[in-house]
Amino acid sequence: SRIKPLDYVIFAYGYEFEKVKNNAWTRRLYLNIYRRAKEIICCSDLVRERLVAFGVSDKKIEVLYPAVDLDRYKPVSLPENYLTRAGLAGRRILLTVGRLVQRKGHDRVFLALPEIVKRFPDVIYCVVGIGQYENALKEKVKQLKLESYVRFMGKLEERELIYLYNACEIFIMPSREIAEGGHIEGFGIVFLEANACKKPVIGGRSGGVKEAIREGETGLLVDPESPRDIADKVISLLKDPAKAGQMGQQGYDWVRKSFSWEGYVKAAYQFLTGKEMV
After folding, report:
1. Does domain 82-258 have CATH number 3.40.50.2000?
2. Roughly how many angstroms between the first and final C-alpha of the chain, as a whole number?
3. What is the pTM of this model?
4. Residue boundaries of the structural domains of the chain
């Protein structure tokens, strides 16, 4: 007897089908996999739109934004002497968390830093993560003579990461779309993690980032190709702590209301079963 095909659900984040769309064979393969799926859950409206353009029926797609573990990502007091031990005492911290790949925009922050530190010489840019672009980024820092203003933190344990979210003044990740290879930011949960710690965020006006930031409320959007725009937006928050604090609070309220794991599980259950979770 024939084996009955299994039903399966796909969670789509964008880059997995964007990177194959220009190769006829892999495009057909991926499209067949998506079309046979019972349901598809996308992390943003942008990914849903790209998937429909890829050739998948909109009827089987649901957008469910990623959730944040609000029991962990929240405002916490830093351990005694934490900043001193980390070599960050007396510094105003800008933070990026993510893989060290070209689309994340670390290099554009580097180009913006000279203008930023001219106004605020106590700024330091902490880069958390590892990836294939690490050596190139470190070389860029040397070329720009920014060693005193950039700290590569590597991969951190979650507890240390949460401390750093709480220690920073601004979270920034000016992601941009890299057409070659289909590199795109499908959403950007790190913006929500930073908001959950009451921090204002700055992101690139690109990809799904526009759905992870309420511009002017929880953070700011920048032209990810413009170091000038990045510098201006960072400086605007550094010189106005009250505005930055208000954005952090509004981000905190938004994340706690809209991005809990409890809400995500209920929405996913209802989409997949057609029933409300009791």
Report:
1. yes
2. 39
3. 0.92
4. 9-67+260-273, 82-258
